[in-house]
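[RESIDUES AND BACKBONE]
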Amino acid sequence: MIGKLKGIVDAIGEDELVLDVAGVGYLVTAGARTLARLEPGGEAVLHIETYVREDVFRLYGFLDDMERAWFVRLQSVQGVGAKHALAMLDAVPAGEIENAAALGDASTFERAKGVGKKLAQRIAAELKDKAPPTGRQLAGRSLAAVVGTGKPASAAPAEPSAGAAREGAVSALVNLGYGESEARQAAAAAARTLGAEANEAALIRTALKELAR
């Protein structure tokens, strides 16, 4: 199986790209959000989800591993295939999907092309009480892909990600005696209020206010 590819973007199509890795051109399916951030001739690192079926071998590529992780998680819902999952990630950033899942907010999923009200409600219901995916941990560097340089974004220690801050807030709330489900909903509501850059302490304070209502 292929988990990551690093190379030069040879060509970009409507829903795919060719990535040249040491002279071998890999055809990678990707969403519009990913393709818009790439340029022919530029270097890219793609997090890959490999699909193997009887008559299909397909690579799906993402610039951020949490997008890949949510691509997989969304397809755990009955009726959601790769096309729907890519459409949702094109319409809604992964962080917002995590918030919507925790809050059971079907309207967020309806923003995706081809996702109707009934399917959106099913997605919200099935994901609401599940912990978010964690993605793969890559040694010594951020999970975010590097485009154009082929180097880690910085040699300095990475700041905690929005997902890590939210998980820390959930853990703190659970330690205070709240149930995991209500803790996740409160943390998601806090993240939606404060924005993606909120740190763990701010999320905890705002989540506690949500729980006190």
Remarks:
- Residues 162-212 form a domain with the Helicase, Ruva Protein; domain 3 fold (CATH 1.10.8).
- The two ends are 48 Å apart (CA to CA).
